[in-house]
Amino acid sequence: MRFLPFLLILTLVIAACATQQPAPVPPPPASTADQIVVQTQPIVETTGTIAVTQSNATDAQAELDALLNRSVDRDFSVTYTVKVNGSSAGTHAIYVKGESVRIDDRVIVDDQVQESRNLWTPDSYIFCGNEGGWSCFSLPVTNETQAPENMERAPPQGVTVTRLADTTVASNRATCYAITYQNTTSREEECFSKEGILLSSRLTAPDGTLTMTATSYALSVGDVFSPPAEPQAMTQG
């Protein structure tokens, strides 16, 4: 399975779980991994206090695309801390095992903590909210309720990617890229594990910054796909 790495997805998830009643996660935005305008530059890696410059610029498009392809059909779990303009905004967690997906969000809104959980299995979609107690609802899997990474994506427009220095996140070596958008001042910095899983992301926009940093990352996932409460069956109107 392949998860989109960009924080715009997280923004949609946070918006969904901040409502009075939990709602399905909206479709994710277009991936920038497929059609990318490439702008390469020398890579500077810092080891201790010595900066080493790689004179031959890499092909950022091919490298990023190949890295993301490593995450396809891979089991993993990752938990992130989320900050808005430097202040804690909650946590975001993803669990993938085979065809099952779980996404948890714990969001701080006006000093109040709200929790949501979305569960996808091959034959059902369950969304849950916790406001003084968990409540869950189930829907059959359709094009509107399938797991985010299976959504059809439109090609990106005006995206430029450049290679950045590697770093370490959650005790894992991470490969990093900068992503900019045409006709905007927004900039995104994304760092991935060697398996192609997002470990950190920082979105800088005119109205502020949004960061997501992994605190735990694993390639084995247990049986964590049961809902926290008995789901009530719903039909789509």
In short:
This protein is mostly beta strands and 237 residues long.
Q: What is the fold's blueprint, element by element?
A:
Elements: H1 7-17, E1 37-38, E2 43-47, E3 50-54, H2 60-69, E4 76-84, E5 87-97, E6 100-109, E7 112-121, E8 124-130, E9 134-139, E10 159-163, E11 167-169, E12 172-181, E13 187-192, E14 198-205, E15 208-218, E16 231-233
Parallel strand pairs: 1-10, 9-16
Antiparallel strand pairs: 2-3, 4-5, 4-15, 5-6, 6-7, 7-8, 8-9, 10-12, 11-12, 12-13, 13-14, 14-15
Describe this structure in words.
It is a single chain. This protein is mainly beta and 237 residues long. It has a single domain (7-232), classed as Clam (outer membrane lipoprotein receptor (LolB), chain A), CATH 2.50.20. Helix content is 9%, strand content 47%. The protein is globular.
Label the CATH architecture: Clam
Mean pLDDT over all positions: 75
- Stretches where pLDDT is under 50 for at least 5 consecutive residues are 1-58, 150-155
What sequence of helices (H) and strands (E) makes up the elements?
HEEEHEEEEEEEEEEEEE
Helix coverage percent: under 10%
User: Looking at this structure, what is the CATH superfamily?
Assistant: Lipoprotein localisation LolA/LolB/LppX
Please work out how many helical segments DSSP would assign: 2
What is the class in the CATH system?
Mainly Beta
